[in-house]
């Protein structure tokens, strides 16, 4: 990343070539630039309007919603109200499911980072027979579709009494988060300068101390990317929770999903509900753009 | 993040120096570090793969061996066949369109100062859940042009180019001089020059009346011409207003088309003014007056986005909305790493922007484009949430995809055997990528 960035800032001989261009081609280029701008603005609107539509819909009273499109607020801004949000947050199904989303997402993220880091460190710096083969095996699991595990794990959880529990959903997410975690962290830890580890060793640090005091702090950037990626992955998941949670342990995505069947009648639940479920991911996105981008880029294979 | 990692491959080659344990660890310590990960992976990822493969050869109750019956169902079951067909459409179109858009956006954003803001907007949907995106697009694709923005825009464009009718449901009232004929309304009698004609109708809902309609006035009369009025002959309330005569409380039909028909040919035509009055030339003498049917068509209601025929393209559209940003950011990173001198050299040699793009940029970016497309293909194979949420119950069968069919077969139709066969099929499709990842990584690990 850094090397690319350096290259962009390198001065390029643009000025020289510009001067040599004919007036005509410069005119064409200016016109082209104008068109590019218009095109990009239109595309940007295309990308923004759907989300704005949801936001405004969530802020209109339900009776107005059946009467006309959300764009009417531009002529009648007095329509805007938090009525739907008020009602939604008094709905215990929704508030419970929001709590469940947190109860699922936070442990599933911490577990993946922690267990992945332990294994990543072992694969990077410990010696044991077949180390590279084991690692390649884990990497092979990167692209396994979660769908393969739905039925077997549903039966397994049924036998273990985990079906319908928050713990079951957390475990499933942890299992399927691990290949990517191990892969990313092993590669990052392998880049740690050997001298640093040796120095710590000479100071008398044991394996666990080395891991906690040297490797984990140095792995900060990779751990941040992984943590953000995993957090959003679990937060946004619907399929896994749909299969493994019940009405008491369902996260917000599943709770809203049950409402979609009567789409149109209960837009006053769906629109604010969807927006509330988006607030945390969007906040993470805007706060940690760089880590977010690198996490999503690296983890998109899932 | 470099592009290599996106395909699940390795980041730039790992340090070649030997990474022997610095601590001379005992194997038991290594095992302890690995144990949690390996146990979870074994129980939750590896075991299910084996289980699914075995399960796919047993019947639905799991008691009897079924051979390849479940796999046969992949190609005979109607639901699965639709799903397969749709998955092919998805895999062909969604990744290519998303990558193409990503390429265009990445190249163009380099030329504007607010490129970063643009990228932020296009990349933002990556942060939200497919459920939220699904709800967003359920709203966008709402059939009613007064609710769904897609149809609102579409109808707007359509009505700009095609004439819209202003008076749906208008029809002659009691004792009307007009009769219905194949959707048109025609006067019973012929008109002659100097006549004044009244063409009253009823039935247009007050909120459907054009905004520019003015109170109807009686025709002025002109000895050399035919004059008339066409208006909504209805005043709310019993016994209010004269039947068959324009009252100040009644509105004219602005823009109503009036034709004079003689021997089956239109000899003159005009449109009514805001107060409903119209004038026809002497040529209309002896003709019948006709209000043609296109005055009364139902208004155009736009496309049925989520109906059986458009539902898959519509959902693919929402997927592209989510993932074009991903392609764009990866391609932009590739673009930033490209040797600028090559582009400049081509420009100096007189290549125009299109040629530079076509002959230099795209070939240099080919590896990145391939990685992006393949990554999206794997992703698209497993698409579930968007289809599940956006496709309404009535057209969900038409929008079916493999992951959705697997969920249905496994969890609502109680056919775990067939569902397992679908999951093994999905797994087989990604195995080439799995091998590719392992092969590439092996070279780096082995150094």
From TrEMBL, chain A:
Record-level GO BP terms: transmembrane transport
One family name in Pfam for this protein: BPD_transp_1
Record has Glycoprotein as a keyword: no
Topology versus the membrane: Multi-pass membrane protein
Origin superkingdom: Bacteria
Residue ranges of domain ABC transmembrane type-1 in the record: 98-288
Keywords assigned: Cell membrane, Membrane, Transmembrane, Transmembrane helix, Transport
CC terms in the record's Gene Ontology section: plasma membrane
Record field: transmembrane: 35-56, 98-121, 133-154, 160-189, 210-235, 269-288
CDD domains noted in UniProt: TM_PBP2
Protein location: Cell membrane
UniProt main location, coarse: membrane
Family the UniProt entry places it in: Belongs to the binding-protein-dependent transport system permease family.
PANTHER family for this protein: ABC TRANSPORTER PERMEASE PROTEIN MG189-RELATED-RELATED, OSMOPROTECTIVE COMPOUNDS UPTAKE PERMEASE PROTEIN GGTD
Protein name listed in UniProt: Sugar ABC transporter permease
Organism of this sequence: Streptomyces resistomycificus
């Amino acid at each position: 990343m850094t090397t690319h960035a350096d290259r962009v800032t390198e001065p390029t001989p643009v000025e020289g070539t510009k001067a040599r261009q004919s007036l005509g081609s410069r005119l064409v280029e200016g016109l082209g630039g104008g068109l590019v701008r218009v095109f990009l603005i239109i595309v940007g609107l295309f990308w923004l309007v759907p989300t704005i539509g949801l936001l405004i819909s969530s802020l209109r009273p339900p009776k107005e919603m059946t009467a006309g499109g959300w764009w009417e607020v531009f002529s009648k801004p007095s329509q805007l109200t938090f009525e739907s949000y008020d009602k939604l947050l008094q709905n215990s199904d929704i508030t419970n499911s929001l709590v469940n989303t947190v109860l699922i997402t936070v442990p599933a993220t911490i577990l993946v980072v922690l267990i992945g880091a332990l294994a990543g460190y072992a694969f990077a710096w410990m010696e044991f027979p077949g180390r590279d083969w084991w690692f390649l095996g884990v990497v092979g699991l990167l692209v396994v579709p979660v769908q393969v595990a739905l039925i077997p794990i549903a039966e397994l959880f049924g036998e273990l009494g985990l079906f319908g529990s928050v713990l079951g959903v957390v475990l499933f997410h942890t299992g399927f988060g691990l290949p990517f975690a191990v892969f990313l962290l092993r590669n990052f830890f392998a880049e740690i300068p050997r001298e640093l580890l040796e120095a710590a060793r000479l100071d008398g640090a044991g394996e666990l101390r080395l891991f906690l005091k040297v490797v984990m702090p140095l792995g900060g950037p990779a751990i941040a990317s992984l943590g953000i990626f995993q957090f959003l992955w679990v937060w946004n998941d619907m399929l896994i929770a749909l299969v493994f949670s019940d009405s008491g342990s369902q996260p917000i995505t599943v709770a809203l999903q049950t409402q979609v069947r009567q789409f149109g009648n209960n837009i006053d639940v769906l629109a604010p509900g969807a927006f509330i479920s988006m607030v945390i991911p969007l906040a993470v996105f805007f706060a940690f753009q760089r880590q977010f981008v690198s996490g999503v880029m690296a983890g998109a294979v899932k | 993040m470099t592009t290599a990692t996106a395909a699940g491959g390795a980041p730039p080659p790992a340090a070649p120096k030997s990474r022997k344990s610095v601590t001379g660890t005992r194997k038991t310590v290594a095992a302890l570090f690995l144990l949690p990960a390996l146990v979870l992976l074994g129980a939750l990822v590896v075991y299910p793969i084996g289980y699914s493969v075995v399960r796919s050869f047993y019947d639905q109750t799991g008691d009897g061996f079924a051979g390849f019956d479940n796999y046969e169902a992949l190609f005979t079951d109607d639901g699965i066949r639709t799903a397969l067909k749709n998955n092919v459409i998805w895999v062909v179109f969604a990744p290519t369109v998303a990558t193409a858009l990503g390429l265009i956006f990445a190249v163009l954003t380099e030329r504007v100062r607010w490129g970063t803001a643009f990228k932020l907007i296009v990349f933002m949907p990556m942060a939200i859940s497919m459920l939220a995106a699904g709800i967003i697009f359920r709203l966008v694709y709402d059939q009613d042009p007064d609710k769904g923005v897609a149809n609102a825009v579409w109808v707007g464009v359509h009505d700009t180019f095609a004439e819209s009718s202003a008076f749906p449901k208008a029809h002659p009232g009691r004792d009307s001089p007009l009769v219905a004929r194949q959707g048109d309304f025609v006067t019973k009698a012929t008109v002659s020059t100097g006549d004044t004609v009244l063409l009253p109708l009823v039935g247009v809902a007050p909120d459907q009346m054009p905004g520019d309609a003015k109170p109807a006035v009686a025709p002025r009369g002109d000895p050399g011409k035919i004059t008339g009025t066409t208006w909504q002959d209805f005043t709310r309330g019993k016994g209010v207003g004269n039947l068959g005569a324009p009252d100040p409380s009644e509105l004219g039909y602005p823009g109503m088309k009036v034709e004079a028909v003689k021997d089956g040919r239109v000899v003159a035509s005009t449109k009514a003014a805001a107060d409903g009055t119209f004038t026809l030339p002497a040529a209309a003498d002896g003709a019948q007056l006709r209000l043609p049917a296109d005055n009364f068509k139902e208004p155009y209601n736009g496309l049925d986005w989520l109906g059986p025929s458009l539902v898959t393209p519509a959902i693919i559209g929402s997927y592209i909305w989510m993932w074009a940003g991903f392609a764009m950011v990866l391609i932009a990173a590739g673009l930033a790493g490209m040797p600028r001198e090559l582009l400049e050299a081509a420009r100096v040699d007189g290549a125009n922007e299109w040629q530079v793009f076509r002959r230099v940029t795209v070939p240099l970016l080919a590896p990145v484009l391939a990685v992006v497309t393949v990554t999206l293909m794997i992703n698209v194979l497993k698409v579930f949430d968007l289809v599940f949420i956006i496709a309404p119950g009535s057209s969900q069968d038409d929008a079916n995809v493999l992951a959705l069919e697997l969920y249905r077969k496994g969890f609502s139709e109680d056919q775990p055997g067939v569902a397992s066969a679908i999951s093994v099929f999905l797994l087989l499709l990604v195995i080439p990528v799995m091998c590719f990842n392992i092969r590439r990584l092996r070279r780096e690990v082995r150094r």
